[in-house]
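Request: Have a read of the protein record below and say how the chain folds.
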Amino acid sequence: MNVINIRIATIGDRSDIQRIYLCAFPLSEDKLVSKLSTDLLSEISTPETISLVAESDSCMVGHVAFSPVKFDGNINILGYILAPLGVKPEYQRRSIGTKLIKHGIQQLSSMGVNFVFVYGDPKYYGRFGFSAEAARQFITPFKLQYPFGWQALVLVECKNDIAPVKVSCVNSLYNPELW
């Protein structure tokens, strides 16, 4: 396998990122997730959204975004959500998604982030330490079609006496169709 380079995405990567999701997701979701991926490139947030791309032989083959979340009650917790993640079909099963996730988690950990959330397959994300138990005290912005998919990874332990806590996301993710 060729060497995989992971770097921060730029606005100039917009069309390549869009193509990743258009070919990696089923027709029922591809346009929605593709739009989310490129909207997040322009999202203005504090702290900032992190968008990473994976390249092989100067070709973009994968993308992941981590955007900040806020918590009701202004509790002193720093959190992010992982969404979306996509790898071109011909590059899947080569650990590219794993490398993107681990690179992002490492970056978030160095920033002192307490929680990383994800709404996805528990078998896949469980390999990175995400669990439904860790997300139990956090309420999603919208009702979930698959509640078991709401998971969290604890990076920095924190004391939270205010439970349950509602999570708010950036504008790009504030769409019930994504949940």
Notes: The chain has a mean pLDDT of 94. DSSP finds five helices and eight strands in the chain. Strands lie at 4-8, 50-56, 59-71, 79-87, 115-119, 138-139, 150-154, 165-168.
